[in-house]
Amino acid sequence: LLQQKIPVELFPPCIQLGLQGLKDGKKRFLFAVTNFLVSAGYPYNEIEQMLHDWNEKNPEPLREVVIKGHLRYHQQQKKKILPPSCDNRAYYKDIGICKPDLHCQKIKNPFQYAKRKAFILRMQEGKEREKLTDEQKAMRKKFREQKKY
Questions:
Q1: 3-class DSSP state for residue 44?
Q2: Would you tell me how many other CB atoms lie within 10 Å of the CB of residue 139?
Q3: Contact status, residue 49 vs residue 78, Cβ threshold 8 Å
Q4: CA pair distance 39, 126, nearest whole angstrom
Q5: In the chain, which ranges are continuous DSSP H helix?
Q6: Is the pLDDT of residue 38 over 90?
Q7: How distant is the alpha carbon of residue 66 from its chain centre?
Q8: C-alpha angle with apex 116: 143 to 34, nearest 5 degrees?
Q9: Model confidence over 69-116: pLDDT tens digits?
Q10: What's the mean per-residue pLDDT of the chain?
């Protein structure tokens, strides 16, 4: 997981657009944005506040109990999952928030977008790339070996 949360300004266009409020697809977006925010390093108390703020921007807000229930269920899950992929039409495209920019061509998932932009920003700021542990190097080597066959 991430050592620090990814700033909102590095979120992909679909997430930024969705956070401005939605007429349709609110429950699908709720699912996607929760997985995105958890992946992006946000603690649940901040996610709850962001979802509350987002819900107030919706023309017809979801009932508060829907959001609280969703968050409670999400926290109980042992496995953290990424938000749905960009090619899953039921989400960003069908909701009407898929407005790709140049970075979108290089990614398959909204979280990859934010992670990539955060990486680019760190490189531009001259910060050194975090060194891999021996365990991470061994895993990468094993993965590359498997890919060859």
A1: helix
A2: 12
A3: no
A4: 24
A5: 13-18, 26-39, 44-57, 64-76, 92-95, 110-124, 134-148
A6: yes
A7: 20
A8: 95
A9: 999 999 998 788 899 999 998 999 999 999 999 989 989 999 999 999
A10: 90
